[in-house]
Design brief:
- With 792 residues, the protein is mainly beta.
- The protein contains five helices and 53 strands.
- The chain has a 22-stranded antiparallel barrel. Strands 9-16-17-12-13 form a five-stranded mixed β-sheet. Strands 1, 4, 7 and 8 form a four-stranded mixed β-sheet that branches.
Length: 792
Amino acid sequence: MRLILFAWLFTSTFAFGQTTGKFTISGYIKDASNGEALIGATVYVTETQGGGVTNEYGFYSITLPAATYTLHYSYLGYLPVTKSVQLDKSNRIDIELSGEAEQLQEVVIQAELEQANVQNLEMSTNKLDIKTIQRIPAFLGEADVIKSLQLLPGVSTVGEGASGFNVRGGSVGQNLILLDEAPVYNSSHLLGFFSVFNPDAVKDVKLYKGGIPARYGGRLSSLLDVRMKEGNSKKLEVTGGIGTIFSRIAVEAPIIKDKMSFIVAARRSYIDILARPFAPVLQNGGALNFYDVTLKTNYNINPKNRVYLSGYFGRDNFKFDRNQGFSWGNATATLRWNHIFNDRLFSNFTALYSNYDYSLQFGRDDQNSFKWNSLISNYIFKPQFTYFLNNNNELNFGAELIYYIFEPANARGVSQGEPDDFSLSKKYNLESSLYLSNSQKISRAVSVDYGIRYSLFNAFGPGKSYTYNNNPPGVRRDTVSSRQYKNGEVIATYGNFEPRVSFKVQVNPTSSIKGSYNRMAQYLHLISNTTASNPLDVWNPSSKNIKPQLADQYTIGFFKDLGKNRMYELSVEGYWKNTQNQIDYIDGADLLINEFLEGDLLSGEGRSYGVETYFQKKAGRLTGWVSYTLARTELKVNGINQGDWYRTRFDQAHNLKIAAFYDISKRWSFSANFVYTSGTPTTFPTSRYISQGLLVPYNGNDSRNNVTLPDYHRLDVSFRLEGKKQKRGKDRKNSDYWVFGVYNLYARQNPFSIYFSQADQRVSPGQPISSEATQLSIIGSVVPSISYNFKF
């Protein structure tokens, strides 16, 4: 019935959108130097003072009455192209834009005016181009996508060495991270110091914190959409770098010029290789490294059909010797087919595979050992359609089908030669969804985007479901019965409608007011009670005992362009987010390899609210931005903190970030970023008692996150030296540059956690016990770095 209703809505809208006496201009906008599609490029029609932007594949479509028009094609950092078109029939116009023309900076600045943030319908969205990411000072001098995002308003982390990121009060597990549309479940290398995204293979990075389009779902807090390069379709290009901790290389080239190309990028750290002669642990099978390989190819079959195939494989290895250690890694594969049915109907069909797994093993030998493997695999299919009804309406509709396989634990131990199996059963789930949305220009001043998404989640057998008793909240629940389900038998079903609405009111050419509402549903839960997310955290699907998470977010914002050529941008956004069915844990919860995990889980409600301010200077020798977020994130769970509201572990009241870039000369440039955040909450004991000469801490009032750690602040700087453009009077065919950086310039020892301990020796009865609090800092000193980067 829903499919019939969906088809009827589309057919009705399609019929409504038919036009007479009008024709369509459509095509792709690409980079002239390498053939890469330009996402979000602007097409501006002088006569109508309107136009459009390209989609994720660089495609645009504009429908106009028969007449002569002047079209301006532009993209930030590229020279604009102007064309005069006599429109008496539908035309296909593909455009290539050229970039890097230093003598025409003012023209490039002017081209940005037509796509300024103040005029877009989108809000709560940040886009970082790879050139900006490469200029931001980074740990050990290596450009990093995730660390760069943490300089934006509303984005935070609990500290160095923490995997992932937090958005508007959400947990790490509430972010949907996509690499060429494939979900990535752990976005970090080296326990959070680096991300899995190789900057040499990344084309576009876009973060949605609110106003998330109806075509996306599955997470409550944010969507990070990372798009890979397609490969240079014009010529061979090799880029890479040699750094303090790892090296990287990327090769891209045409297979058939202007029709088929590829890119292969790889990275490998070498701390263990360099340290092996001096570290005995590394000489006995130990390892401390990570590596990843990213690849993509595409083939332009004809003007209406294009296929893409991309993949990623990466892994981290922490081994203490041949028999002990742990490792984790992601693997993804994406197959996409772009098909243009006609000049107004664009489609994309995507088949995806994603896998995240980790393993842990320890023991002296085969007679005394323990091995544990866990994984989550996805098989996904997504048909997506965009229909350009007319210049005022753009319709998006489609579906998504996700099949999950969870393997919580494949665990076996051996003690004195006696084996024991601790494995848990696999879990099987199917998530399906339909969506329909329309982006509409009501007038020159008012635009709206409205849509609906319906998601359906099923848990299937084979598997066992438990029923638990009703112990008092905060006390472990015991099983009272169980039921074994057959293969394919439905264990639990959940369905949710997820409406999305956003609007923009253009107050004047340089000011606008925007607002949005999102309902999001999340059927997966990241089970973790550690200070920060770690590779051994467990993903668990919704079940009969775990309901799906829900969130309602309301956002309002003011956007303003300032200064000559609008080179300054100001935005202020306020948000309020209510969440339901938030997972927390009883004190002493057993989260790992626990068949009765659901008995240790508690569920409650959450709220997040705040104000984000963002000020950016976009042009000139000095560029950069300042962002400040004032926010609060709290949970209320019956059985924790006496049932009262309490702050989450990643709550930060104040969050200030400053990023600055200054061109000293044609060859030298300087970059700096400063971060200041309020300390995050943690739980300290409220009392203590002594038992047999040992001091035992005790939380007497059941409080949770009752203490705030000291504030966090850090300053990073870097200098970049461009290689010479000429050699012996001739232009060099290759380019290169050096980066000299200092992370944590004034050696701030930021606290990651604080723990308590007492002297090793017991004291006599009646004597005082010596105890102390110890602050753990992941990085407490200056970290210099140097890296060399090249391109030819």
